[in-house]
Each structure stands twice: as structure tokens, then as C-alpha cells.
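Quick start: read one record
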Amino acid sequence: ADEPNTPAISAGKALIDGSDKPESPLSDADKEAVKDKVDTSNLPEGTTVTPADKVSGTPDNPVVLVTITYPDGTTDTIEVPVKQKDSMVYQPQLPSVTEVGNVNQLTDQEKEQVKAAFEKANPQLPAGTKIFVSDKGSLAVIFPDGSGFEIDGAYIVR
């Protein structure tokens, strides 16, 4: 089907929770993330998008093969590049507990101490990672790919 009805892939890679190594299985949630990368807006109604059950490609360029099935029964196979979310790759270590004056209202200096303790405990974080500390000492980490996590202040300050 080489008409203008060619499926397009939106920019960037599909971010998945599971491993992006070739032959790794894909969860249903990760298949949805892959499907979301396929722009079907210019395809005929009734077209289906079916991601493969596993990652293929190479370790340097992992992809998921996606079968596009048109209403007339013809199919196309496209490759959607995938990347495991930074938040799944970098499993954070809890920092040593920071002693603070008031666990409900950290000073700016105490917030800097908490941030420094977390960075010291996690030297492997990718460049561009943003770390935010709340007034109650909870920590929000945002990776360059936009994924992230939070850690409750109860584990971090006392």
C-alpha cells in the first residue's frame, strides 16, 4: 500500500518500562506506548495497529515491529524505535538521612543538603537529571527523557 496512506511514526522513541534489549518481551502497557507512536490519522477507518510481542533490532537501535492491517486485508510492517525509561534503568539508592530542624518546613540550606546527599548516593544519574526537594523533604527526580519518580520525605529527613 504505497498510497498517501502510509503510517507515520511521531518523533522520538516510544518510552517503555520493560527492557529495550532485543528479544525482551513487551508488556501490554509497553505495547500501548508503542501503538501511541504510530500516527493513524491519515489511514483508512478500520485499520488496526498490532505491535510484536518482543523487542527486535540491535542493542544500539532497538525497535518493535508493528503490523498495520488495512480494511482490505493488506498489511505493512513498520519499525518503531523504543527506549527503556530512565526511571526504570536507574534504580535510585536512598540517601543517608538528613537531620533537619523542622521536618515540615525545610530551609533552603537543608534542601540543598538533601539534594547533595541524593546525588552522592546516586552518582550514575544521567546528565540533565533534575532534582527537586519539597518543604517537607520529599524528593522529585525528573530524568532527561521526562520519566521520573518521587521519594517520600519520611525516608529522607528526620
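The mean pLDDT is 94.
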